[in-house]
Amino acid sequence: MSDPWWRGAAVYQVYIRSFADGNADGIGDIPGLHSRLGYLSDLGVDAVWISPWYVSPMADAGYDVTDYRDIDPTFGTLRNAEAFIDDAHHHGLRVIVDMVPNHCSAAHPWFRAALSADPGSAERQRFYFRPGKGTHGELPPNDWTSGFGGPAWSRVTEPDGVPGEWYLHLYAPEQPDFNWDNPEVRSEFLDILRFWLDRGVDGFRIDAADRLAKDPALPDMAALQAGSPRPDRGQPAAHDIYRDWRRVVDAYPGDRVLVGEIWLDLRHRAAYHAPGELHTSFSLDLLRTRWDAGAVRRVIDANLESSAATGAPATWVLGNHDVTRVVTRYGRADTRFVPDVAQAAGTASGDSDHALGTRRARAAALLIMALPGGVYIYQGDELGIWEVEDIPPELIQDPKWENSGHTDRGRDGCRVPLPWSGNAPPFGFSDQSAPSSQPGRSAPPAAAAQPWLPQPAQWRSLTVAAQAAEASSTLSLYRHALRIRGRELSHSDGPLTWLPTEPGALAFTRPGGLACVINLSRKPAELPRHRDVLLASGPLDGALLPPDTAVWLRTAL
Ligand code: NOJ
Ligand code: CA
User: Which of 181, 213, 283, 355 might form a disulfide with 237, Cβ 3.0–4.6 angstroms?
Assistant: First the structure.
């Protein structure tokens, strides 16, 4: 029997509001995504992971859900989603959907019911409601802070009109945290999982997977002893939740997968890969690592050792919708992404050399695609688009901007709509033939709305259409690499053998004789003995590998 598909899959992250717009309102949607299925199968990925598409007031771009069993009208309908899942399968693509269990929207019927119910009621016990501290309960119940800035508690006005209890939100105030000790919460989510499994989804990406369980005492952070576990993440009670989820998923035919989003260090993250829990979780280590051979090698070794110990495949990630674009990061003096540190305030920080960042991002793509395990490709990284750092403040939508008192511009810069074709924005993002033109009228189509975030004019050379025709483009590199990977490396996550190299370079082989060499130094590096060059991320220097370049070789058989 072959390994389950997800062990070695190339998964493409669709950030739906920025992928493709099917009705010309400037916001990506399911019909737009559906119309580009051919693009995804040509690219050569095995699966897509779709950011939340559920009904939502969009206080946090859909990570604030009011109905987990329906699609937000911005993105389409449940029928659109079902048709997409079916057709994706016909194209040979698996579909992973985003599940958001830590919190819902403040507009969710359960939270609204909790607001109109009394303190101590069953409705309030689905969330974390607590009395405040201070003489009149005017202070939050503890000192926890929200991931988006400010306190993690907001005070409610009770049904009788007086200020009352506080509720917990580890993110925006519009995202109240569920109380996972409550059996109703648990069974509700098992039912939601079944709802989507019944519609054929191949798995779930679990948002903030380590945050669901809290230390029941809700202790102040300031009172904790140095080195004690955080009370708001990584708590042991979460494991029981995932054992329930795993039983549900395993009861379905086919190989369905649970992938956790967990920003803990590797040792604590691996605890979620215990038998009967998550199949795997994102390795977010590489994107927090310097462009340095020793540092990169340590991350690879640690992840592969952990994988060998737990049986969960490694999962390589260079970017996602929460992280500064890889081209921009790798063009900076400090190439690391530091979570929870404000993205540059003000306008363009301008500290990134995009040409250098592009060379490194291309090399890094060949590196991760040759490693054992899965790869997760954030939409647009295959085009080499960069972080847009000069979005005008009045257009910024990330709740981090408001919640930080305008000190953190947040994540919009990596969420700008994709450039598909043409010489000027909106670069074919919106399908102008589709707007609700009235049947029987031959009026010219209405002009498409502008994309929800502005695209840089310089992306004209980075559109899909421009790059598809260009053999040396980043898109061509990805297509080529994914094709070779699919042929030679996928459906296998083992083993890797390191080869000796000069300092500053890394080289390894995979079963079948494919070798990957990457040069992270400032000097050209010798290549190991090989028969052929299969693919290179940039021009070679005779027999030498230039700095910031990677190559795939066929080694002598
Ligand atoms: C992680 C998601 O990736 C991010 O976009 C979101 O804001 C938080 N979780 C809260 O749901
Ligand atoms: Ca749309």
Answer: 213
DSSP 8-state class, residue 98: E
Ligand 2 ion: Cβ-proximal residues, 5 Å cutoff: 21, 23, 25, 27, 29
Instruction: Name the nearest CA neighbour of 380 among 328, 339, 332.
Output: 328
Express each pLDDT in 336-391 by its tens digit.
Answer: 998 877 665 444 466 899 999 999 999 999 999 999 999 999 999 999 999 999 99
Report the chain's C-alpha Rg in angstroms: 24
If you search the block for the tokens 């009235």, which residue do you land on? 438
In Å, how far from its chain's centre is CA 158?
37
Q: How far apart are CA 474 and CA 449, in angstroms?
A: 28
* Beta-carbon count within 10 A of 111 CB: 22
Q: Give 437's pLDDT tier (boundaries 50, 70, 90).
A: very low
DSSP element (H, E) containing 111: helix 109-116
* Nearby residues of 464 by Cβ (< 8 Å), 6 or more positions away: 39, 383, 418, 419, 420, 421, 428, 475
**Distance separating alpha carbons of residues 515 and 378, to the nearest angstrom:** 25
Answer whether 428's CB lies under 8 Å from 422's CB. yes
Taking the C-alpha atoms of residue 241 and residue 163, their distance in angstroms, rounded to an integer, is: 34
Distance in angstroms (rounded) separating the CA atoms of residues 111 and 123 = 8
Ligand 1 mean position, distance from CA 59 (Å): 11
How many other CB atoms are found less than 10 A from the CB of residue 258? 25
Q: Are strands 532-536 and 54-55 parallel, antiparallel or unpaired?
A: unpaired
Strands, E assignment, 92-142: 94-99, 129-130
CB distance 488 to ligand 1 below 6 Å: no
Assigned token pair, 53: 């598409």
The tens digit of pLDDT for each residue in 377-426 reads: 999 999 999 999 999 999 999 999 998 899 899 999 999 999 999 999 99
Phi, psi angle pair for 497, to nearest 5°: -120, 120
For residue 92, the 8-state DSSP code is: T
Q: Smallest Cα–Cα separation from 170: which of 157, 142, 155, 151?
A: 151
Nearest-angstrom CA–CA distance, 176 and 170: 8
**Nearest ligand 1 atom, CA 411:** 5
Residue 160 sits at φ, ψ, to 5 deg, of: -85, 5
Q: Whose CA is nearest to atom 4 of ligand 1?
A: 322
Our answer on whether the CB atom of 144 is closer than 6 Å to any ligand 1 atom is: no
| Neighbouring C-beta atoms of residue 447, cutoff 10 Å | 10
Please give the DSSP secondary-structure letter assigned to residue 516. E
DSSP type of residue 56: -
Q: What CA–CA distance (Å, rounded) separates 292 from 166?
A: 46
The first and second tokens of residue 8, run together, are: 């070695």
Cβ neighbours for 76, distance < 8 A, ≥ 6 positions apart: 22, 29, 30, 31, 53
Residue 499: C-alpha distances to residues 241, 403, 422, 530 (Å): 42, 49, 45, 12
